[in-house]
């Protein structure tokens, strides 16, 4: 009986698609901040004057479209990444939660971390291509003509191994980030002192912002090292050549000091907070649409349960229940 309190009202496919939509929406809206963050991490001349001056420098050099460089490949990557991450986390949440559907902080951290690891491994090559497209300059000296061309050139010149440069660092980094984000978000949902379905989009947005800011502060050095490893194409990009994760950490600290691991953190925090806020708010909005579509709630954006409709049934079980009520 207790297990029935766990939330099974969305199908796996609905959770998967909702997560993907949330990722694409949040990435597209915050793309300018992500571009500046990556350029700062890799170490390009446009970001030498600081965070705010970087926007003017990049605009003068390449125009407005430069702020959405790599956004297409980022969305191609983020749809499956977020879809897998949310679907995996939701599945693991049901597995790890208690009879009332509540996760302990440790189990929330574990579920979030495992979901992030699965998503990272599944989509890493597209993330590497996104980084290469982002750091190259537009115009005649651009090495890659687009997403597919980048895949072809990297495969021809550097081999399959190049698509997974920095993945071990990424996996190490995703454990505190994804785990910390979902753990903090689960906790913050309870801070408001009201049922989850009564939280407003603004409250969901604030929860996502706070959760990601907390997690990203601790995992940012791994993200910096990952970007440096991804960016070192033959002949272009980056500021130093690195032989691996440990070597990259060592050379970065030697050249820039310990705080070099947090280079670009201002741009990243300015980006990651609204990114996560939009992502979680969008996912919750998609979730409410699905719950109403499945027959559980009062409206597409109103998560109030319909009186008399059992909320402990899975979608196909509720459909069967509704059919019986009509007879």
TrEMBL record:
Q: Which UniProt keywords apply?
A: Membrane, Repeat, Transmembrane, Transmembrane helix, Transport
- What is the protein's membrane topology class? Multi-pass membrane protein
User: Which Pfam families does this entry report, sorted A to Z?
Assistant: Mito_carr (PF00153)
- Phylogenetic classification of the source organism: Eukaryota, Discoba, Jakobida, Andalucina, Stygiellidae
| Main subcellular localisation | membrane
Q: Write out the ranges of the repeats annotated as Solcar.
A: 10-95, 103-191, 199-289
- Descriptive protein name: Mitochondrial carrier family protein 1
Name of the gene this protein is made from: MCF1
Q: Which GO terms describe its cellular component?
A: membrane
PANTHER family in UniProt: SOLUTE CARRIER FAMILY 25 (PTHR24089)
From which organism does this entry originate? Stygiella incarcerata
Give the domain of life. Eukaryota
